[in-house]
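Service request form, structural biology core

Requester: graduate student, group of Dr. S.
Request type: structure prediction, single chain
Budget code: on file
Notes: please return the result as structure tokens.

Sequence provided:
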Amino acid sequence: MRAFRLGCEPSEKLGISKLAAQFIAPFVIGFVTWLLQRAQADGVRRPYFLSRDCQLVWKVAQQLAPHFGGIECRYLYISRQALFLPSANEISPVGMPWMRRSFEEPVLKNLLAKIELSFSDVAKTLGELAGSQKEYYRLCSEEDWNQFWAALNQEPVKTQINQLIERRSEAARQYFESEGVFNPIKWSLVDFGWFYWCY
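Core staff response, request fulfilled:
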């Protein structure tokens, strides 16, 4: 930070360079140093950094890891959304808590997209509720939500969702296996997010 300040002309417009040098870089380096210290103290040999939000942190961690006993920093190409379906254990509010979140508009189209369905898949059971709004209907009450979950648990939709969960779970398992998640080594996950959601 000091070197950056001393190397700048007083009249120079810095913009993004100033933001990076004065805030982002020191924050990331401080966080990564703390992270690697914790990993070293806890015996974690392989932290996995989740894609997008942690890309910069992962790159910095790779550079600093040799100073902490050569911790192996790996990058997982996976999003939180991609983990929702594989983590589902039943078609219900308890089994799929990520379907209903306070900061999202509960519009049918968006809800169904989370489980890779379209309105035509549930039109027979939710058509009356949605009326002329169809896929743009917004769930407004607990009764709306009860009807929504009931529709998802009727055949053939229920079987379709369960088969999708199985396929996504197997795909996730294969990917994690290829990345060494099941290796006999102590590992951890590193992730950032605007909301603290863990399932």
